[in-house]
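Blackboard transcription, Thursday session:
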Amino acid sequence: MTQILLIEPDKLLSNSYSKALKSVGYEVDAAKGSQEAIYIADKIKPDVVILELQLISHSGIEFLYEFRSYPDWQDIPVLLHTNVPYVEIGDNWQYLNDLLGVKRYLYKPTTTLQDLIANVNQVFLNKNE
Amino acid sequence: MDRLSLLNFSDPSYQLMINLAEQLKLPFIQIQRQAELIAIDNNHNNIKSIEISASYALKLIDNYLLSLRLAQQKMSLEQEPVSIISVLYDSGQLLIDLAKEYGVDIELDVSGKFEPVIAHKKGLESALVSIGSSLIEAVSTQEGAKCRLQLATHKCRYGVVAGVYANNPNITTDLLRQGRKLIGNARQPLVNLTYSAGAGIFVADSILKAMSLSLKASRHHSLYGLGAVMRGSQQLQLV
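(Written on the board underneath:)
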């Protein structure tokens, strides 16, 4: 079964995303912050990571640097699902995409649960091709 | 001159508005996703969650408007003798639903004898509820121990403090100072405390300022928190 690591600090949103992803058959483990996420990743070996950039203390970008520093986690696809608008990511997208393995950018306010599921499906399919 | 150029971007009320707008995205996204979820799993328990998120957003907007009206002196400050204990109790009641949603326990610690203070009751209550709602989000992310918030009061050398406290050592004077500098310019002015814009704390800051009170970081026993410092009334104590 496909394991998803969901890094979402807001408990209510985390519950909604987890329920939606579980309803289509994914296994979801949720983390509220980057340290907890590393701990869970070590335990479950996720197939896909969904990441919010706005976390407490350590940002999502800091998480990515740490996550990619482990050899086993180099190829795990990451989806940015964030409140930070694309315009603010701007030039950094290429860097995030090429060097940190971020496959998709999803703006949280306009991404429906169905959009999120569709993007996870797509990323998972591409990974296995 | 167009309207945009008339705006003063360094104006604190403008910065508070940006911060509030950023904060309000959260309950609106929650409402949107919970509504979608009803369509997916047909679980109508989510309706209660939608109500709570909407009520949180409305309360925040109301408190923001109160801070503006007080600052513009469009609302008269009807100072009255206020029992801090009753304000803390009422504020706690207003926070209970949101706290439950986030899995946070609300406690009241009002042991001791406290004289009434002269204050604007509604303003003080709005400030405490605003602080509380921000701290509920913040403490819900803490790992390990059970998440709890304590509404409490104690005497200090400046008078009486009424505040909201948590087991979170990141709530410091420095955090508040930095936040005040970053508001309107950063998405997370209180990055070491909360993942959101922390608007409740800045709205409370603004309300208290308009009431000639101040928001301060303080300790209550082993807990850390934010509270309003007020002067007790010696005369009222005699009544």
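Lecturer's comment: Residues 156 and 229 of chain B are 8 Å apart (CA to CA).
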